[in-house]
Amino acid sequence: MYDINKVREDFPILGREVYGKPLVYLDNGATTQKPRMVVDAMVDEYYSVNANVHRGVHFLSQQATELHEGSRETVRRFINARSTNEVIFTRGTTESINLLAFSFGEEFMSEGDEVIVSTMEHHSNIVPWQLLAARKGIAIKVIPMNDQGELLLDEYEKLFSERTKLVSVTHVSNVLGTVNPVKQMIATAHEHGVPVLVDGAQGVPHAAVDVQDLDADFYAFSGHKVYGPTGVGVLYGKEEWLDRLPPYQGGGEMIQTVTFEKTTFNELPFKFEAGTPDYIATTALARALDYVTALGMDNIAAHEHDLTQYAMMRLKEIPNMRLIGEAEHKSSVVSFLVGDIHHFDMGTLLDRLGIAVRTGHHCAQPLMQRLGIEGTVRASFGLYNTRDEVDILVAGVERVSRMF
Ligand code: PLP
Questions:
Q1: Same domain, 123 and 71
Q2: For 374-390, how does the pLDDT look when each residue is reduced to its tens digit (9 = 90+)?
Q3: pLDDT averaged over the chain?
Q4: Cα(343) to centroid(ligand 1), Å
Q5: Residue of 159, 274, 363, 368 with catalytic role
Q6: Which domain covers residue 356, as residue numbers?
Q7: Is the CB of 199 under 6 A from ligand 1?
Q8: What is the number of structural domains in the chain?
Q9: pTM of the entire structure?
């Protein structure tokens, strides 16, 4: 059973007030709040285990290493990777994509080669490819979308050429909430012999992800968006691909032997993990994944689906409401504009009512250009939000709208 009151008790921050009003936190797309057990895991490890991992013979180092490598196994299980060799710890989705753009680009792309992305990408899945384009002269092709915010799969098919080397597409849009049919898109890419990177920053927190079922070649996500700590994320990659990619950064941990003439690299996954990892954060990430697993990803998805449907229905009651992103398959993100009220004004006034939403371009300026707008107000729901909070949001938006 999904006991929302009990769930909320796990998140101390939800009990606080802002401007004398109870906090209504609807900015989960940007980052999620942390359950007590996640923060406790960090404090406990600092107080009772802390030592650098992998290199020490002493007790604490071995215990820290066990925790860190145990966390890798937790991530493996959570996304159903075949092996922990396929789980690389990074600082987050952004670093995961940059890692892949660099390493894949180095090894497999040259001038005139192409990468396919979509109209609804976050900047972190656009700019790394532009950096690669500047370095190597590759081209970026863009999958268009319809006005509901769904990718045009026929057009996607047409983008493939013999120069296509990679598809890099978001699982879920952080602006529109669209859940892209990535399994189908991966199958299409594979028919053309092209591997796929999925940006799962907004996918992993909201529904069960099985990388083997998707047949994703690479999958990236951030810990802080799935109730874990900041500063840690994951790049999943099929072992056969990771084996063939060169390292991204050099340093400790990623080497086997070093002389001034030549260095040999460590095995997977350490080849891609130069330097001291944030082992405190990996422990806490594993506790966050344990937490959502115990609640049940299907229960979380159902709860958030209910909230999203309810929010869309209620917001539509407001005069001059424009919902942005009405894809058939939609995750728990609701973007909107009311009349010609500036998104920033709406967000600022809602904040005074204790309601935390995000405003602006949401790091997706090309998508804003496609929509012909500068920005939106975005409410994004997490596992602890309630229908009552949706009602507070709707009342707040109505109140602000009347003021204008
Ligand atoms: N991709 C998507 C779809 C996102 O929503 C975000 C963050 O909002 C990112 C990538 C970047 O994530 P991070 O800043 O955690 O690296």
A1: yes
A2: 999 999 999 999 999 99
A3: 97
A4: 21
A5: 363
A6: 4-30+296-403
A7: yes
A8: 2
A9: 0.98
